[in-house]
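Deliverable D4.2, example record:
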Amino acid sequence: MRAVDPRLLQHARAAKSYLIVTVVLGLAVTGLILAQAALLAHALATAAHGKGAAALAGTLALLLGVLAARGAAGYGGEAAALRAAARVKSQLRRKLVGHCLRLGPAWLGGQQPGQIAAQATRGLDGLDPYFARYLPQLVLSVLVPAAVVVTVTAADWISGLVIAVTLPLIPLFAALVGLHTKAATHRQWRLLAQLAGHFLDVVQGLPTLKVFGRAKFQEQVIAKVTDEHRSAALATLRVAFLSALVLELSAALATALVAVETGLRLLYGHLPYQTALLVLLLTPEAYLPLRAVAAQYHASAEGRAAADSIFPILDTPLPPQAAPVPLAGSTAAVPDLRSATIRLSGVSVTYPGRGRPAMGPLSLTIRPGELVMLTGASGAGKTTVLRLLLRFIEPTSGTARVDGTDLAAIPVDFWRAQLAWVPQHPRLLRGSVADNIALGRPAAPRAAIEDAARLAGAATFIEALPHGYDTPLGERAATLSSGQRQQLALARAFLLDAPLLLLDEPAAHLAPAAAAAIDDVIRGPLAGRTIILATHRHLGTAGASQVITLDALGLADIASRPTGIPATVAAR
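Output generated by the structure prediction step:
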Protein backbone atom coordinates (compact mmCIF):
# COMPACT_ATOMS: atom_id res chain seq x y z
CA MET A 1 0.00 0.00 0.00
CA ARG A 2 1.60 3.23 -1.15
CA ALA A 3 1.13 6.41 0.88
CA VAL A 4 1.32 8.59 -2.26
CA ASP A 5 0.35 7.36 -5.71
CA PRO A 6 3.12 8.58 -8.06
CA ARG A 7 0.81 8.23 -11.06
CA LEU A 8 -1.48 10.93 -9.67
CA LEU A 9 1.47 13.28 -9.38
CA GLN A 10 2.71 12.28 -12.84
CA HIS A 11 -0.61 12.94 -14.55
CA ALA A 12 -1.47 15.98 -12.43
CA ARG A 13 1.41 18.43 -12.36
CA ALA A 14 -0.67 20.96 -10.46
CA ALA A 15 -0.25 18.73 -7.39
CA LYS A 16 3.55 19.02 -7.41
CA SER A 17 3.62 22.75 -6.74
CA TYR A 18 0.90 22.23 -4.19
CA LEU A 19 3.04 19.70 -2.30
CA ILE A 20 5.73 22.33 -1.91
CA VAL A 21 3.17 24.68 -0.36
CA THR A 22 1.95 21.83 1.83
CA VAL A 23 5.45 21.09 3.14
CA VAL A 24 6.08 24.77 3.91
CA LEU A 25 2.77 25.13 5.75
CA GLY A 26 3.40 21.80 7.48
CA LEU A 27 6.69 23.08 8.81
CA ALA A 28 4.98 26.26 10.01
CA VAL A 29 2.19 24.30 11.74
CA THR A 30 4.75 21.99 13.37
CA GLY A 31 6.67 24.91 14.79
CA LEU A 32 3.45 26.55 16.01
CA ILE A 33 2.37 23.32 17.75
CA LEU A 34 5.64 23.16 19.66
CA ALA A 35 5.45 26.85 20.53
CA GLN A 36 1.84 26.49 21.67
CA ALA A 37 2.68 23.60 24.00
CA ALA A 38 5.72 25.36 25.43
CA LEU A 39 3.82 28.60 26.07
CA LEU A 40 0.84 26.83 27.60
CA ALA A 41 3.09 24.74 29.88
CA HIS A 42 4.94 27.86 30.95
CA ALA A 43 1.67 29.71 31.65
CA LEU A 44 0.25 26.85 33.74
CA ALA A 45 3.49 26.42 35.65
CA THR A 46 3.64 30.17 36.34
CA ALA A 47 0.06 30.17 37.58
CA ALA A 48 0.73 27.11 39.75
CA HIS A 49 3.57 28.95 41.47
CA GLY A 50 1.12 31.68 42.51
CA LYS A 51 2.50 34.48 40.35
CA GLY A 52 0.12 37.28 39.40
CA ALA A 53 -1.68 38.09 36.16
CA ALA A 54 1.04 40.58 35.20
CA ALA A 55 3.57 37.75 34.94
CA LEU A 56 1.18 35.84 32.65
CA ALA A 57 0.18 38.71 30.37
CA GLY A 58 3.11 38.41 27.96
CA THR A 59 2.89 34.61 27.78
CA LEU A 60 -0.87 34.65 27.18
CA ALA A 61 -0.52 37.29 24.46
CA LEU A 62 2.09 35.18 22.70
CA LEU A 63 -0.12 32.10 23.12
CA LEU A 64 -3.08 33.88 21.50
CA GLY A 65 -0.83 34.96 18.63
CA VAL A 66 0.39 31.40 18.14
CA LEU A 67 -3.19 30.05 18.15
CA ALA A 68 -4.25 32.65 15.58
CA ALA A 69 -1.24 31.88 13.39
CA ARG A 70 -1.95 28.13 13.62
CA GLY A 71 -5.55 28.68 12.58
CA ALA A 72 -4.50 30.92 9.70
CA ALA A 73 -1.92 28.37 8.50
CA GLY A 74 -4.50 25.59 8.64
CA TYR A 75 -7.07 27.68 6.79
CA GLY A 76 -4.56 28.76 4.16
CA GLY A 77 -3.41 25.19 3.63
CA GLU A 78 -6.93 23.86 3.16
CA ALA A 79 -7.94 26.72 0.85
CA ALA A 80 -4.85 26.16 -1.29
CA ALA A 81 -5.53 22.44 -1.23
CA LEU A 82 -9.09 22.83 -2.51
CA ARG A 83 -7.93 25.08 -5.34
CA ALA A 84 -5.19 22.61 -6.20
CA ALA A 85 -7.71 19.74 -6.14
CA ALA A 86 -9.93 21.64 -8.57
CA ARG A 87 -6.96 22.21 -10.92
CA VAL A 88 -5.92 18.58 -10.67
CA LYS A 89 -9.42 17.31 -11.47
CA SER A 90 -9.70 19.72 -14.38
CA GLN A 91 -6.31 18.63 -15.71
CA LEU A 92 -7.13 14.94 -15.40
CA ARG A 93 -10.53 15.43 -17.06
CA ARG A 94 -8.94 17.28 -19.96
CA LYS A 95 -6.32 14.55 -20.31
CA LEU A 96 -8.93 11.79 -20.16
CA VAL A 97 -11.28 13.38 -22.70
CA GLY A 98 -8.43 14.45 -24.98
CA HIS A 99 -6.82 11.02 -24.89
CA CYS A 100 -10.15 9.32 -25.63
CA LEU A 101 -10.61 11.63 -28.62
CA ARG A 102 -7.10 10.92 -29.88
CA LEU A 103 -7.65 7.18 -29.48
CA GLY A 104 -10.47 7.62 -31.95
CA PRO A 105 -13.86 6.08 -32.67
CA ALA A 106 -12.40 2.61 -33.31
CA TRP A 107 -11.19 2.43 -29.70
CA LEU A 108 -14.24 4.15 -28.23
CA GLY A 109 -16.53 1.73 -30.03
CA GLY A 110 -15.22 -1.09 -27.84
CA GLN A 111 -15.61 0.80 -24.55
CA GLN A 112 -18.51 1.45 -22.20
CA PRO A 113 -19.33 5.18 -22.37
CA GLY A 114 -21.35 5.13 -19.16
CA GLN A 115 -18.37 3.93 -17.14
CA ILE A 116 -16.02 6.47 -18.73
CA ALA A 117 -18.54 9.25 -17.98
CA ALA A 118 -18.80 8.10 -14.34
CA GLN A 119 -15.00 8.03 -14.06
CA ALA A 120 -14.60 11.53 -15.49
CA THR A 121 -17.31 13.08 -13.29
CA ARG A 122 -18.27 11.40 -10.04
CA GLY A 123 -15.04 9.42 -9.86
CA LEU A 124 -12.64 12.36 -10.16
CA ASP A 125 -14.73 14.40 -7.72
CA GLY A 126 -13.65 11.82 -5.15
CA LEU A 127 -10.09 13.17 -5.41
CA ASP A 128 -11.04 16.25 -3.37
CA PRO A 129 -10.37 14.53 -0.02
CA TYR A 130 -7.10 13.12 -1.39
CA PHE A 131 -5.56 16.46 -2.32
CA ALA A 132 -7.40 18.71 0.10
CA ARG A 133 -6.99 16.67 3.27
CA TYR A 134 -5.04 13.45 2.87
CA LEU A 135 -1.83 14.89 1.36
CA PRO A 136 -1.61 17.82 3.85
CA GLN A 137 -2.25 15.43 6.72
CA LEU A 138 0.35 13.04 5.33
CA VAL A 139 2.98 15.78 5.52
CA LEU A 140 1.95 16.63 9.08
CA SER A 141 2.02 12.94 10.05
CA VAL A 142 5.74 12.93 9.22
CA LEU A 143 6.80 16.34 10.50
CA VAL A 144 4.79 16.67 13.73
CA PRO A 145 5.57 13.29 15.36
CA ALA A 146 9.26 13.65 14.53
CA ALA A 147 9.38 17.15 15.99
CA VAL A 148 7.43 16.08 19.08
CA VAL A 149 9.71 13.09 19.74
CA VAL A 150 12.80 15.28 19.45
CA THR A 151 11.34 17.98 21.71
CA VAL A 152 10.01 15.56 24.34
CA THR A 153 13.25 13.56 24.33
CA ALA A 154 15.21 16.74 24.92
CA ALA A 155 12.97 17.53 27.90
CA ASP A 156 12.49 13.97 29.24
CA TRP A 157 14.20 11.07 27.50
CA ILE A 158 12.04 8.39 29.14
CA SER A 159 8.80 9.87 27.80
CA GLY A 160 10.45 10.44 24.44
CA LEU A 161 11.45 6.76 24.32
CA VAL A 162 7.91 5.61 25.16
CA ILE A 163 6.44 7.78 22.40
CA ALA A 164 9.06 6.65 19.89
CA VAL A 165 8.33 2.98 20.63
CA THR A 166 4.52 3.27 20.47
CA LEU A 167 4.27 5.58 17.43
CA PRO A 168 4.96 2.88 14.78
CA LEU A 169 1.99 0.83 16.01
CA ILE A 170 -0.51 3.29 14.52
CA PRO A 171 0.83 3.29 10.93
CA LEU A 172 1.24 -0.49 11.19
CA PHE A 173 -2.42 -0.98 12.10
CA ALA A 174 -3.42 1.62 9.49
CA ALA A 175 -1.51 -0.25 6.78
CA LEU A 176 -3.11 -3.57 7.68
CA VAL A 177 -6.60 -2.09 7.65
CA GLY A 178 -5.82 -0.07 4.52
CA LEU A 179 -5.10 -3.18 2.48
CA HIS A 180 -8.60 -4.46 3.15
CA THR A 181 -10.09 -1.00 2.59
CA LYS A 182 -8.44 -0.71 -0.82
CA ALA A 183 -9.98 -3.97 -2.03
CA ALA A 184 -13.42 -3.03 -0.69
CA THR A 185 -13.28 0.43 -2.23
CA HIS A 186 -12.22 -0.90 -5.62
CA ARG A 187 -15.18 -3.28 -5.57
CA GLN A 188 -17.51 -0.42 -4.59
CA TRP A 189 -16.24 1.77 -7.42
CA ARG A 190 -16.39 -1.06 -9.94
CA LEU A 191 -20.06 -1.64 -9.07
CA LEU A 192 -20.80 2.08 -9.30
CA ALA A 193 -19.23 2.29 -12.77
CA GLN A 194 -21.15 -0.85 -13.81
CA LEU A 195 -24.38 0.70 -12.54
CA ALA A 196 -23.74 3.93 -14.45
CA GLY A 197 -23.01 2.09 -17.70
CA HIS A 198 -26.00 -0.21 -17.38
CA PHE A 199 -28.34 2.65 -16.50
CA LEU A 200 -27.19 4.57 -19.58
CA ASP A 201 -27.83 1.53 -21.78
CA VAL A 202 -31.32 1.09 -20.32
CA VAL A 203 -32.25 4.75 -20.82
CA GLN A 204 -31.03 4.74 -24.42
CA GLY A 205 -32.78 1.46 -25.20
CA LEU A 206 -36.00 2.14 -23.30
CA PRO A 207 -38.27 2.17 -26.41
CA THR A 208 -36.91 -1.22 -27.49
CA LEU A 209 -37.30 -2.63 -23.98
CA LYS A 210 -40.88 -1.39 -23.82
CA VAL A 211 -41.80 -2.91 -27.16
CA PHE A 212 -40.35 -6.29 -26.24
CA GLY A 213 -41.75 -6.21 -22.72
CA ARG A 214 -38.37 -6.29 -20.95
CA ALA A 215 -38.53 -2.97 -19.10
CA LYS A 216 -39.60 -4.60 -15.82
CA PHE A 217 -36.76 -7.10 -16.07
CA GLN A 218 -34.24 -4.29 -16.49
CA GLU A 219 -35.70 -2.60 -13.42
CA GLN A 220 -34.87 -5.76 -11.49
CA VAL A 221 -31.34 -5.84 -12.92
CA ILE A 222 -30.72 -2.20 -11.94
CA ALA A 223 -32.19 -2.87 -8.49
CA LYS A 224 -29.83 -5.84 -8.08
CA VAL A 225 -26.73 -3.86 -9.12
CA THR A 226 -27.84 -0.96 -6.90
CA ASP A 227 -28.24 -3.30 -3.94
CA GLU A 228 -24.77 -4.76 -4.58
CA HIS A 229 -23.30 -1.25 -4.66
CA ARG A 230 -25.13 -0.36 -1.45
CA SER A 231 -23.76 -3.47 0.25
CA ALA A 232 -20.24 -2.70 -0.98
CA ALA A 233 -20.51 0.91 0.23
CA LEU A 234 -21.71 -0.22 3.67
CA ALA A 235 -18.90 -2.78 3.85
CA THR A 236 -16.38 -0.03 3.09
CA LEU A 237 -17.91 2.19 5.75
CA ARG A 238 -17.79 -0.63 8.30
CA VAL A 239 -14.08 -1.09 7.60
CA ALA A 240 -13.52 2.66 7.95
CA PHE A 241 -15.40 2.83 11.27
CA LEU A 242 -13.61 -0.21 12.67
CA SER A 243 -10.24 1.16 11.59
CA ALA A 244 -11.03 4.44 13.33
CA LEU A 245 -11.84 2.49 16.50
CA VAL A 246 -8.58 0.54 16.31
CA LEU A 247 -6.48 3.66 15.72
CA GLU A 248 -8.23 5.70 18.41
CA LEU A 249 -7.82 2.86 20.91
CA SER A 250 -4.13 2.46 20.06
CA ALA A 251 -3.48 6.21 20.38
CA ALA A 252 -5.46 6.41 23.63
CA LEU A 253 -3.54 3.51 25.20
CA ALA A 254 -0.19 4.97 24.14
CA THR A 255 -1.13 8.41 25.47
CA ALA A 256 -2.33 6.85 28.73
CA LEU A 257 0.97 4.97 29.08
CA VAL A 258 2.94 8.21 28.77
CA ALA A 259 0.56 9.99 31.15
CA VAL A 260 0.87 7.25 33.81
CA GLU A 261 4.67 7.09 33.80
CA THR A 262 4.91 10.90 33.72
CA GLY A 263 2.39 11.28 36.56
CA LEU A 264 4.17 8.74 38.77
CA ARG A 265 7.54 10.41 38.35
CA LEU A 266 5.97 13.82 38.93
CA LEU A 267 4.32 12.49 42.10
CA TYR A 268 7.67 11.31 43.49
CA GLY A 269 9.42 14.52 42.52
CA HIS A 270 11.57 13.01 39.78
CA LEU A 271 10.18 15.33 37.08
CA PRO A 272 9.73 19.12 37.08
CA TYR A 273 6.13 20.34 36.85
CA GLN A 274 6.63 22.43 33.70
CA THR A 275 8.43 19.56 31.96
CA ALA A 276 5.61 17.16 32.85
CA LEU A 277 3.06 19.62 31.46
CA LEU A 278 5.04 19.98 28.24
CA VAL A 279 5.22 16.20 27.82
CA LEU A 280 1.50 15.74 28.49
CA LEU A 281 0.53 18.54 26.11
CA LEU A 282 2.74 17.30 23.27
CA THR A 283 1.99 13.58 23.55
CA PRO A 284 -1.53 13.75 22.00
CA GLU A 285 -0.11 15.96 19.23
CA ALA A 286 2.30 13.17 18.28
CA TYR A 287 -0.48 10.64 17.70
CA LEU A 288 -3.16 13.00 16.33
CA PRO A 289 -1.68 13.45 12.80
CA LEU A 290 -1.26 9.69 12.40
CA ARG A 291 -4.88 9.05 13.35
CA ALA A 292 -6.05 11.83 11.09
CA VAL A 293 -4.04 10.64 8.06
CA ALA A 294 -5.53 7.16 8.45
CA ALA A 295 -9.05 8.62 8.53
CA GLN A 296 -8.37 10.77 5.47
CA TYR A 297 -6.89 7.76 3.67
CA HIS A 298 -10.27 6.05 3.92
CA ALA A 299 -12.11 9.23 2.91
CA SER A 300 -10.01 9.54 -0.25
CA ALA A 301 -10.13 5.85 -1.18
CA GLU A 302 -13.00 6.26 -3.66
CA GLY A 303 -11.18 8.97 -5.61
CA ARG A 304 -8.02 6.91 -5.81
CA ALA A 305 -10.01 3.86 -6.94
CA ALA A 306 -11.55 5.95 -9.74
CA ALA A 307 -8.11 7.26 -10.69
CA ASP A 308 -6.82 3.68 -10.84
CA SER A 309 -9.48 2.94 -13.46
CA ILE A 310 -8.55 6.05 -15.45
CA PHE A 311 -4.81 5.40 -15.64
CA PRO A 312 -5.17 2.37 -17.95
CA ILE A 313 -7.02 4.62 -20.40
CA LEU A 314 -4.36 7.34 -20.20
CA ASP A 315 -1.67 4.69 -20.64
CA THR A 316 -3.33 3.20 -23.73
CA PRO A 317 -0.93 3.83 -26.63
CA LEU A 318 -2.23 6.08 -29.34
CA PRO A 319 -2.91 4.53 -32.74
CA PRO A 320 -0.48 5.35 -35.54
CA GLN A 321 -2.71 8.02 -37.03
CA ALA A 322 -2.60 9.99 -33.77
CA ALA A 323 1.16 10.42 -33.99
CA PRO A 324 1.98 10.66 -37.71
CA VAL A 325 5.38 11.10 -39.25
CA PRO A 326 5.64 14.84 -39.92
CA LEU A 327 5.94 15.89 -43.52
CA ALA A 328 8.66 18.19 -44.68
CA GLY A 329 7.55 21.81 -44.65
CA SER A 330 4.15 22.99 -43.47
CA THR A 331 0.59 22.27 -44.49
CA ALA A 332 1.58 22.94 -48.08
CA ALA A 333 3.22 19.49 -48.10
CA VAL A 334 -0.17 17.81 -47.57
CA PRO A 335 -1.58 16.50 -50.87
CA ASP A 336 -4.52 18.55 -52.13
CA LEU A 337 -7.46 16.19 -52.64
CA ARG A 338 -8.84 18.46 -55.37
CA SER A 339 -6.09 17.15 -57.60
CA ALA A 340 -4.60 14.17 -55.74
CA THR A 341 -5.25 10.52 -56.56
CA ILE A 342 -5.89 8.02 -53.76
CA ARG A 343 -4.58 4.49 -54.31
CA LEU A 344 -5.29 1.49 -52.10
CA SER A 345 -2.99 -1.45 -52.85
CA GLY A 346 -3.88 -4.82 -51.32
CA VAL A 347 -5.39 -3.17 -48.28
CA SER A 348 -7.09 -5.33 -45.68
CA VAL A 349 -8.37 -4.57 -42.18
CA THR A 350 -8.76 -6.99 -39.28
CA TYR A 351 -10.34 -5.66 -36.10
CA PRO A 352 -8.81 -6.71 -32.75
CA GLY A 353 -10.33 -9.89 -31.40
CA ARG A 354 -11.63 -11.06 -34.76
CA GLY A 355 -10.14 -14.01 -36.57
CA ARG A 356 -10.94 -12.98 -40.14
CA PRO A 357 -10.48 -9.68 -41.98
CA ALA A 358 -13.42 -7.28 -42.02
CA MET A 359 -12.28 -6.05 -45.43
CA GLY A 360 -9.78 -6.90 -48.10
CA PRO A 361 -7.49 -7.29 -49.73
CA LEU A 362 -8.69 -4.33 -51.78
CA SER A 363 -6.88 -2.47 -54.54
CA LEU A 364 -8.64 0.67 -55.67
CA THR A 365 -7.77 3.91 -57.45
CA ILE A 366 -9.87 7.00 -56.68
CA ARG A 367 -9.25 9.92 -59.01
CA PRO A 368 -10.24 13.53 -58.33
CA GLY A 369 -13.87 14.31 -59.05
CA GLU A 370 -14.99 10.67 -59.26
CA LEU A 371 -18.20 9.27 -57.82
CA VAL A 372 -17.32 5.85 -56.39
CA MET A 373 -20.15 3.66 -55.11
CA LEU A 374 -19.55 0.83 -52.64
CA THR A 375 -22.35 -1.70 -52.55
CA GLY A 376 -22.85 -5.04 -50.91
CA ALA A 377 -24.60 -6.78 -48.07
CA SER A 378 -24.34 -5.67 -44.46
CA GLY A 379 -20.97 -6.66 -43.01
CA ALA A 380 -19.22 -6.77 -46.37
CA GLY A 381 -16.83 -3.96 -45.39
CA LYS A 382 -18.35 -0.80 -46.88
CA THR A 383 -18.17 1.19 -43.65
CA THR A 384 -14.68 -0.17 -42.99
CA VAL A 385 -13.46 1.38 -46.26
CA LEU A 386 -14.81 4.75 -45.13
CA ARG A 387 -13.30 4.38 -41.65
CA LEU A 388 -9.97 3.64 -43.30
CA LEU A 389 -10.16 6.84 -45.36
CA LEU A 390 -11.26 8.79 -42.28
CA ARG A 391 -8.11 7.54 -40.48
CA PHE A 392 -10.19 6.02 -37.69
CA ILE A 393 -8.38 2.75 -38.34
CA GLU A 394 -5.15 1.74 -40.05
CA PRO A 395 -4.78 -1.06 -42.60
CA THR A 396 -3.63 -4.40 -41.23
CA SER A 397 -1.80 -5.05 -44.48
CA GLY A 398 -1.32 -3.27 -47.78
CA THR A 399 -0.69 0.41 -48.41
CA ALA A 400 -2.79 3.53 -48.86
CA ARG A 401 -1.13 6.38 -50.75
CA VAL A 402 -2.13 9.84 -51.87
CA ASP A 403 -0.13 10.99 -54.90
CA GLY A 404 2.68 8.68 -53.78
CA THR A 405 2.65 9.84 -50.14
CA ASP A 406 1.87 7.23 -47.52
CA LEU A 407 -1.47 8.12 -45.94
CA ALA A 408 -0.09 7.33 -42.47
CA ALA A 409 2.58 10.02 -42.93
CA ILE A 410 0.05 12.80 -43.50
CA PRO A 411 -0.84 14.72 -40.29
CA VAL A 412 -4.30 13.49 -39.43
CA ASP A 413 -5.77 16.94 -38.69
CA PHE A 414 -4.65 18.30 -42.06
CA TRP A 415 -5.99 15.20 -43.79
CA ARG A 416 -9.41 15.39 -42.16
CA ALA A 417 -9.63 19.10 -42.92
CA GLN A 418 -10.20 18.05 -46.55
CA LEU A 419 -12.95 15.55 -45.74
CA ALA A 420 -16.68 15.71 -45.10
CA TRP A 421 -18.47 12.70 -43.65
CA VAL A 422 -22.06 11.61 -43.17
CA PRO A 423 -22.26 8.43 -41.03
CA GLN A 424 -25.13 5.97 -40.92
CA HIS A 425 -26.27 7.32 -37.55
CA PRO A 426 -25.27 11.00 -37.42
CA ARG A 427 -24.73 12.65 -34.07
CA LEU A 428 -26.23 16.08 -33.43
CA LEU A 429 -24.99 18.14 -30.50
CA ARG A 430 -26.66 20.50 -28.05
CA GLY A 431 -27.10 23.89 -29.67
CA SER A 432 -29.19 25.49 -32.36
CA VAL A 433 -30.00 23.97 -35.73
CA ALA A 434 -27.67 26.49 -37.37
CA ASP A 435 -24.85 25.62 -34.97
CA ASN A 436 -25.16 21.93 -35.84
CA ILE A 437 -25.09 22.61 -39.58
CA ALA A 438 -22.09 24.93 -39.15
CA LEU A 439 -20.16 22.46 -36.99
CA GLY A 440 -17.30 22.24 -39.50
CA ARG A 441 -17.45 25.98 -40.38
CA PRO A 442 -18.41 27.86 -37.21
CA ALA A 443 -17.93 31.24 -38.94
CA ALA A 444 -20.11 30.38 -41.94
CA PRO A 445 -22.62 33.11 -42.86
CA ARG A 446 -26.31 32.42 -42.39
CA ALA A 447 -26.90 32.50 -46.14
CA ALA A 448 -24.42 29.65 -46.68
CA ILE A 449 -26.05 27.63 -43.90
CA GLU A 450 -29.47 28.09 -45.48
CA ASP A 451 -28.14 27.12 -48.92
CA ALA A 452 -26.66 23.89 -47.47
CA ALA A 453 -29.96 23.11 -45.77
CA ARG A 454 -31.83 23.58 -49.07
CA LEU A 455 -29.43 21.24 -50.87
CA ALA A 456 -30.05 18.61 -48.18
CA GLY A 457 -33.83 19.07 -48.37
CA ALA A 458 -33.95 20.27 -44.75
CA ALA A 459 -35.02 23.88 -45.31
CA THR A 460 -38.76 23.15 -45.25
CA PHE A 461 -38.89 21.44 -41.85
CA ILE A 462 -36.30 23.83 -40.34
CA GLU A 463 -38.38 26.87 -41.25
CA ALA A 464 -41.41 25.20 -39.67
CA LEU A 465 -39.61 24.88 -36.30
CA PRO A 466 -40.56 27.38 -33.56
CA HIS A 467 -37.42 29.50 -34.01
CA GLY A 468 -36.30 28.31 -37.42
CA TYR A 469 -32.54 27.94 -37.66
CA ASP A 470 -32.17 29.26 -34.11
CA THR A 471 -34.29 26.47 -32.61
CA PRO A 472 -32.25 24.76 -29.86
CA LEU A 473 -31.78 21.01 -30.09
CA GLY A 474 -31.77 18.96 -26.92
CA GLU A 475 -29.83 15.82 -26.13
CA ARG A 476 -29.42 13.65 -29.25
CA ALA A 477 -31.94 15.95 -31.03
CA ALA A 478 -34.68 13.62 -29.82
CA THR A 479 -37.45 15.96 -31.07
CA LEU A 480 -36.41 15.36 -34.70
CA SER A 481 -37.10 12.28 -36.75
CA SER A 482 -34.32 10.03 -38.02
CA GLY A 483 -34.76 11.44 -41.52
CA GLN A 484 -34.55 15.03 -40.29
CA ARG A 485 -31.37 14.27 -38.37
CA GLN A 486 -29.95 12.67 -41.51
CA GLN A 487 -30.79 15.77 -43.56
CA LEU A 488 -29.07 18.04 -41.02
CA ALA A 489 -25.98 15.82 -41.20
CA LEU A 490 -26.04 16.07 -45.01
CA ALA A 491 -26.37 19.87 -44.78
CA ARG A 492 -23.38 19.91 -42.41
CA ALA A 493 -21.29 17.97 -44.95
CA PHE A 494 -22.46 20.09 -47.91
CA LEU A 495 -21.60 23.33 -46.06
CA LEU A 496 -18.06 22.16 -45.40
CA ASP A 497 -17.34 22.18 -49.15
CA ALA A 498 -14.59 19.58 -48.70
CA PRO A 499 -12.94 18.07 -51.80
CA LEU A 500 -13.59 14.49 -50.56
CA LEU A 501 -17.11 13.60 -49.43
CA LEU A 502 -17.72 10.27 -47.66
CA LEU A 503 -21.36 9.21 -47.46
CA ASP A 504 -22.40 6.09 -45.51
CA GLU A 505 -25.99 5.14 -46.42
CA PRO A 506 -26.98 8.82 -46.76
CA ALA A 507 -30.56 8.03 -47.78
CA ALA A 508 -31.19 5.16 -45.36
CA HIS A 509 -33.67 7.15 -43.23
CA LEU A 510 -35.15 9.30 -45.99
CA ALA A 511 -38.42 8.98 -47.84
CA PRO A 512 -38.10 7.91 -51.51
CA ALA A 513 -38.71 11.44 -52.80
CA ALA A 514 -36.11 12.93 -50.42
CA ALA A 515 -33.64 10.15 -51.30
CA ALA A 516 -34.12 10.87 -55.01
CA ALA A 517 -33.50 14.58 -54.35
CA ILE A 518 -30.22 13.79 -52.59
CA ASP A 519 -29.29 11.56 -55.54
CA ASP A 520 -29.83 14.52 -57.86
CA VAL A 521 -27.73 16.81 -55.64
CA ILE A 522 -24.84 14.33 -55.67
CA ARG A 523 -24.86 14.18 -59.44
CA GLY A 524 -25.62 17.89 -59.90
CA PRO A 525 -24.43 20.67 -57.54
CA LEU A 526 -21.82 18.39 -55.96
CA ALA A 527 -20.38 17.23 -59.27
CA GLY A 528 -16.66 17.89 -59.29
CA ARG A 529 -16.08 16.74 -55.72
CA THR A 530 -14.66 13.30 -55.07
CA ILE A 531 -17.53 11.32 -53.55
CA ILE A 532 -17.41 7.84 -52.06
CA LEU A 533 -20.91 6.58 -51.35
CA ALA A 534 -21.56 3.38 -49.41
CA THR A 535 -24.96 1.79 -49.91
CA HIS A 536 -26.43 -1.69 -49.70
CA ARG A 537 -28.63 -1.02 -52.71
CA HIS A 538 -27.68 -1.29 -56.39
CA LEU A 539 -30.14 1.43 -57.37
CA GLY A 540 -29.11 4.87 -58.53
CA THR A 541 -25.75 3.91 -59.97
CA ALA A 542 -26.09 6.06 -63.09
CA GLY A 543 -23.24 8.56 -63.34
CA ALA A 544 -20.92 6.65 -61.03
CA SER A 545 -17.31 6.36 -62.17
CA GLN A 546 -16.93 3.07 -60.32
CA VAL A 547 -19.51 0.76 -58.78
CA ILE A 548 -17.81 -1.76 -56.49
CA THR A 549 -19.72 -4.64 -54.98
CA LEU A 550 -18.10 -6.05 -51.87
CA ASP A 551 -18.87 -9.58 -50.78
CA ALA A 552 -18.54 -11.23 -47.41
CA LEU A 553 -15.71 -13.54 -48.46
CA GLY A 554 -13.05 -11.01 -49.34
CA LEU A 555 -11.95 -8.59 -52.03
CA ALA A 556 -9.87 -8.90 -55.15
CA ASP A 557 -8.03 -6.18 -57.02
CA ILE A 558 -10.35 -4.15 -59.23
CA ALA A 559 -10.05 -1.51 -61.90
CA SER A 560 -12.27 1.36 -62.97
CA ARG A 561 -15.48 0.24 -64.61
CA PRO A 562 -17.58 1.88 -67.29
CA THR A 563 -20.22 4.20 -65.93
CA GLY A 564 -23.19 2.46 -64.41
CA ILE A 565 -21.86 -1.11 -64.75
CA PRO A 566 -21.53 -2.84 -61.37
CA ALA A 567 -18.29 -4.69 -60.68
CA THR A 568 -18.76 -7.59 -58.30
CA VAL A 569 -15.54 -8.18 -56.45
CA ALA A 570 -14.48 -11.81 -56.47
CA ALA A 571 -13.63 -13.80 -53.40
CA ARG A 572 -9.99 -14.33 -52.52
